């Protein structure tokens, strides 16, 4: 659990982060969203003390993050940034091994961990381990950046626009990978982005920041349904709101009894995908199948449209 | 590695230099036309090989000293606690460069006497600036994402310097050392005016006895040494840069 209590950061007369408090539950993904200059990155960097707050306290599992020296604290917290920040003079394997080495793990354990992580990110350890970062594609570099952040099995992972430099196809793959890894390790992730779409897709909770203030801290559904201010509403995008709302729940939740003709959609697909498929194929209803491929009912245009409307406050 | 023309040329020149230093009298016919009145053709007041080695030793000591001081200074003023000394150290090092080596020699002789010492002082001061400036450039123009990542993974200040900043700045620092060595190889010759054992002796002896052959021998050896060392250090820089992906592989 990460408790951020009345955190303020000032540079001279400029207040970059203004009295922000929020609690991040363990094993969840929290996304901090805001425009550039909103203080979102500064807020995140105060968690691992790359930036020292002017006032306020941050507690990790109940312990003030100033009890340890900054560098020791940072070895316990994963850190991945935009443009990966890999060390160009070290091989991929050496890059991933950085934090375990700083922590003094023995060599066999480090080697095993490097291989495990490379395999986890679908990179062959024999092929990629000895390569240098500049010999990799952008997507591969980004994966190594995340692998390095996870190398010492941190409970908390901080990510600063980790997918910002990737093209859309690789980005959505990287997002799926991140969700899978979060499920697997149960890491508490705090991710900074300016992309509300990404925030809604990844976050269990979203913190919206503007001008150093925390405007709203809530679940994606709550932010979509009841944006706290006009700024939050603008960020959400009124035009896309119903579709984003549908994208939060799987088609399985919208299943109605009955049958329908044509190609089926898996229950794990989002309701937005289901509606898109309905509209595109011009059908009034779609069959839904579960993971085993067995039909469990259907979704209808009418049913989905009803779900896309603003929930009663 | 395939032997290409430039490589063959380099090996050829090096071999020629070594042969000349070991058996200078073999080259007598070449230099003969440069002398008059039956003057000696090949330098005969000492061994060319010994002088060359002493010359190289002087330059090596001076450059090593300059490197240690300049790099240490650059590291110091790029740390948070040393930042305020940056302007001061810059001007100090600049003075070292603007002061003509001859003037340093003249000033140093009364203080430390004749011989190698004043030469070392002059070369040391003269070699500081290129190394200091390049080290500063190297240490202050590191990619920000990399330095941020180095802090973010939990390296201490010392670990960041040794494991990330210095290795990444190394090609630029080496370029500074290369410049300094080349300048000092040439400048060291004037050390012989204060009785330092360098190749300047050969040139000065030639000038005094109006013997063009001596002047050319001294000058050629210094020139070839400078070119070869410059070349070798450049190759080293390229190798390191390529390893780090700072240069695209050709």
Query: For this structure, what is the CATH class of the largest domain in chain A?
Result: Alpha Beta
The CATH homologous superfamily of the largest domain in chain A is named P-loop containing nucleotide triphosphate hydrolases
Put simply, the count of helices of chain A is 14
- Overall SS class of chain A: alpha/beta
Radius of gyration of chain A: 22 Å
**Shape, principal axes of CA atoms of chain B:** flat
Q: Which regions of chain B have little confidence, pLDDT < 50, spanning 5+ residues? A: none
Q: What's the number of helices of chain B?
A: 10
What portion of the residues of chain B fall into strands of 2 or more residues? under 5%
Largest interface: A-B, 27 and 21 residues
Overall number of domains of chain B: 1
Number of strands of chain B: 0
Q: Percentage of helical residues of chain B?
A: over 70%
CATH superfamily of chain B: MetI-like
Compute the CA-based radius of gyration of chain B: 22 Å
Structural class of chain B: mainly alpha
Which architecture of chain B does the CATH hierarchy give at level 2? Orthogonal Bundle
Described by strand count, sense and barrel closure, the largest sheet of chain B is: none
How many beta-strand runs of chain A?
Answer: 13
- How confident overall, as mean pLDDT of chain B? 87
Could you say how many structural domains of chain A there are in total? 2
């Amino acid at each position: 659990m990460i408790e951020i209590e009345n955190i303020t950061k000032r540079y001279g007369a400029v207040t970059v982060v203004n009295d922000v408090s929020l609690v991040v539950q363990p094993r969840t993904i929290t996304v901090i969203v805001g425009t550039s200059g909103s203080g979102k990155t500064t807020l995140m960097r105060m968690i691992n003390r790359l930036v020292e707050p002017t006032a306020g306290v941050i507690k990790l599992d109940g312990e003030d993050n100033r009890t340890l020296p900054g560098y020791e604290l940072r070895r316990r917290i994963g850190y991945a940034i935009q443009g990966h920040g890999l060390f160009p003079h070290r091989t991929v394997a050496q890059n991933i091994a950085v934090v375990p080495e700083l922590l003094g793990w023995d060599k066999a354990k480090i080697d095993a961990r490097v291989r495990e992580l490379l395999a986890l990110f679908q990179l062959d350890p024999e092929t990629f381990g000895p390569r240098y970062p500049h010999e990799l594609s952008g997507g591969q570099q980004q994966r190594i950046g995340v692998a390095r952040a996870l190398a010492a099995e941190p409970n908390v992972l901080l990510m600063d626009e980790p997918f910002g430099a990737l093209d859309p196809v690789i980005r959505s793959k990287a997002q799926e990978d991140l969700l899978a890894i979060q499920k697997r390790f149960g890491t508490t992730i705090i991710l900074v982005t300016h992309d509300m779409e990404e925030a809604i897709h990844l976050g269990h909770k979203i913190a919206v920041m503007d001008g150093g203030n925390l405007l709203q801290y809530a679940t994606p559904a709550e932010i979509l349904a009841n944006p706290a201010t006009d700024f939050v509403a603008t960020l959400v995008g009124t035009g896309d709101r119903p579709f984003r709302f549908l994208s939060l729940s799987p088609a399985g939740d919208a299943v109605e009894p009955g049958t329908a003709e044509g190609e089926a959609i898996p229950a794990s697909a989002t309701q937005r995908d289901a509606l898109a498929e309905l509209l595109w194929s011009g059908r009034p209803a779609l069959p839904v199948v579960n993971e085993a491929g067995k039909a469990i009912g259907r979704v209808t245009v009418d049913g989905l449209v009803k779900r896309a409307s603003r929930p009663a406050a | 590695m395939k032997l290409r023309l430039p490589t063959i040329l380099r090996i050829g020149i090096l071999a020629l230099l070594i042969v000349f230093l070991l058996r200078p009298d073999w080259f007598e016919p070449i230099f003969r036309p440069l002398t008059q009145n039956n003057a000696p053709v090949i330098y005969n007041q000492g061994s060319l090989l010994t002088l060359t080695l002493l010359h190289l030793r002087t330059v090596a000591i001076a450059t090593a000293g300059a490197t240690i001081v300049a790099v240490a200074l650059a590291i110091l003023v790029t740390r948070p606690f040393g930042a305020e000394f940056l302007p001061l150290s810059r001007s100090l090092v600049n003075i070292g460069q603007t002061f003509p080596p001859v003037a340093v020699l003249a000033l140093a002789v009364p203080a430390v006497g004749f011989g190698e010492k004043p030469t070392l002082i002059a070369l040391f001061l003269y070699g500081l600036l290129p190394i200091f400036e390049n080290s500063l450039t190297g240490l202050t123009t590191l990619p920000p994402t990399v330095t941020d990542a180095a802090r973010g993974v939990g390296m201490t200040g010392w670990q960041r310097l040794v494991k990330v900043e210095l290795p990444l700045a190394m090609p630029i620092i080496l370029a500074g050392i290369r410049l300094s060595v080349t300048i000092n190889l040439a400048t060291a010759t004037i050390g012989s005016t204060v009785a330092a054992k360098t190749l300047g002796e050969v040139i000065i002896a030639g000038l005094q006895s109006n013997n063009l052959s001596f002047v050319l021998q001294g000058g050629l050896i210094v020139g070839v040494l400078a070119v070869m060392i410059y070349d070798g250090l450049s190759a080293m820089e390229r190798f390191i840069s390529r390893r780090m992906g700072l240069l695209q592989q050709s």
